[in-house]
Write a structure and sequence with these properties.
The complex is a heterodimer of chains A (167) and B (100). With 167 residues, chain A is mainly alpha-helical. Chain A has helices at residues 2-22, 26-46, 50-75, 86-109, 121-127, 129-139, 142-163. In chain A, helix 1 (2-22) runs antiparallel to helix 2 (26-46) and helix 2 runs antiparallel to helix 3. Chain A is globular and about 55 Å long. Chain B contains three helices and no strands. The chains are: A mainly alpha (167), B mainly alpha (100).
Chain lengths: 167, 100
């Protein structure tokens, strides 16, 4: 049952990912990307990471995609189908295909390490995923967490300065 | 829970589709969306390995990747708006001011 569910989600994720790169209109691409994000959130739930799924839907599908869709609508780009660049499509597809072959070959040849960490599936279900993530983030990863706030400040200032017409 | 390899192969497929999008499209916004797709493929790898190894470090890393993606979206879209104000286009072929 879960294998069938996994197959359906995989199909939806790959079809919507192909739609992202093949749609003429950027709005359609953005909406297909939201569909892919929801499929990834489903994967996170299947991987016993419900908090990551919630963050994926809220931050990625909610905040970041709304920002992108707003920008697309603000720029109001006309769909231009007159220009064709077939040589570049062929070359890019070949490179992408070789990337896929390379990664799948490595995956099939490699040996996965045995589980070493303390967090088993039962423990995550018992204690709660959010609590464990919070403990990890505010103890071992406290310094990167604080540095992240500086990164966001830089992004805010940079976005305002870049989007201004005159300083 | 499926085994680890199926998640990794899905992630590899999504990564390759994103790569093709970056290499073939001319519209800067679609290239940006493809980069988001690549980042999400990597996030899926992080979470799958984190679950497999029983170690939550990978999932904390996904948080930082999401933060960087948010910052990148803000600055990248501001750059696109600034470029559109100058050139009336967001075709990446028109970004040739510093070429040669």
């Amino acid at each position: 049952m879960e294998t069938l569910f996994f197959a359906i989600i995989t199909l939806v994720a790959i079809v919507s990912a192909i739609l992202v790169i093949s749609c003429k209109n950027p709005i359609n691409s953005a909406l297909s990307l939201v569909m892919t994000f929801f499929c990834l959130a489903t994967y996170y739930v299947m991987l016993d990471a419900p908090f990551m799924a919630a963050v994926q839907v809220m931050v990625y599908a909610g905040a970041i995609m709304v920002l992108i869709v707003f920008t697309i609508m603000l720029l109001n780009i006309r769909v231009d189908a007159t220009k064709k660049h077939t040589h570049k499509v062929v070359l890019g597809s070949i490179i992408g295909f070789f990337t896929l072959i390379n990664t799948v070959f490595l995956l099939l040849k490699g040996h996965v390490a045995v589980p070493t960490g303390p967090y088993s599936g039962e423990m995550i279900k018992q204690l709660g995923h959010t609590e464990l993530i919070g403990k990890e983030m505010f103890t071992n990863f406290l310094l990167p967490f604080e540095i992240t706030s500086i990164l966001l400040l830089v992004a805010i200032v940079g976005a305002v300065i870049l989007a201004k017409k005159k300083l | 829970m499926e085994n680890l390899n199926s998640y990794l192969i899905v992630s590899a497929i999504l990564f390759s589709i994103g790569t093709i999008g970056v290499l073939t499209r001319k519209n800067a916004i679609v290239i940006f969306l493809s980069i988001e797709l690549i980042q999400n493929a990597v996030n899926l790898t992080f979470v799958a390995f984190s679950r497999h190894l029983g170690n939550l470090d990978g999932q904390v890393f996904v948080f930082f990747v999401m933060t960087v993606a948010a910052a990148e979206a803000a600055v990248g879209l501001a750059l696109m708006i600034a470029f559109y104000n100058n050139k009336e286009s967001i075709d990446v072929d028109d970004v040739n001011l510093m070429k040669w």
